[in-house]
Amino acid sequence: MSKASANFGGTVGWDEQTVIGKRAPRPGELKSESAIAAAERAGVAIDTSKKFAAGHNKQHESAKNTAVLDRETEELHHERVNKDTARAIQQARVAKEWTQADLAKHINEKQQVINEYEQSRAIPNQQILSKMERALGVKLRGKDIGQPFTSGPKKK
């Protein structure tokens, strides 16, 4: 027995090859043409599947064409506080000599919310309108907007 074969603990054939630290590529890594060709030659199973809208942010894209949307007759928008309500809020606040910030503190809202209601830019929130009615003492909902607000149970 030769010295080289004694070190390995047996005979080593010339045709055998031991590679340490090399791993087979995962399917996701075979994306280049040369890697696919090499995998085909080696007999590795190749899965070719087209992913829908890969690389594009399609989930937030509208399904309708913009020209179709332009031709659509239905207008989708939120109702805003009407001008009468906005005027009633402003007049009642000024009558009490309050600033928008003062009213905001009384109803636990931001001053910006009061500003939006007085400018008719806010989407009406019944809770906020109710708090304003109680703080200002003026009706802001229903038929008689601007009339004095009396809280308590309704009379039968």
Structure description:
InterPro entries: Cro/C1-type_HTH, Lambda_DNA-bd_dom_sf, MBF1_N. Residues 89-143 form the HTH cro/C1-type domain. One of its GO terms (molecular function) is DNA binding. This is HTH cro/C1-type domain-containing protein. The protein is an all-alpha fold and 156 residues long. The chain has a domain at 83-143: 434 Repressor (Amino-terminal Domain) (Orthogonal Bundle), CATH 1.10.260.40. The chain is 40% helix and 0% strand. The chain has 7 helices and no strands. The radius of gyration is 38 Å and the shape is elongated. Residues 1-6 have low confidence and may be disordered.
Could you give a short description of this structure?
By secondary structure, the protein is mostly helical.
Could you name the key traits of this structure?
single chain; 156 residues; mainly alpha; 434 Repressor (Amino-terminal Domain); elongated; disordered N terminus
Q: What's the total count of β strands?
A: 0
What is the CATH first-level class name of the domain at 83-143? Answer: Mainly Alpha
- Name the helicity range: 25-40%
Number of helices: 7
In CATH, the homologous superfamily of the domain at 83-143 goes by the name lambda repressor-like DNA-binding domains
In the CATH hierarchy, the third-tier topology of the domain at 83-143 is known as 434 Repressor (Amino-terminal Domain)
Radius of gyration: 38 Å
Beta fraction of the residues? under 5%
Q: In angstroms, what separates the terminal alpha carbons?
A: 117 Å
Provide the succession of SSEs: HHHHHHH
Keywords: DNA-binding, Transcription, Transcription regulation
GO molecular function: DNA binding
Domain HTH cro/C1-type: 89-143
Protein name: HTH cro/C1-type domain-containing protein
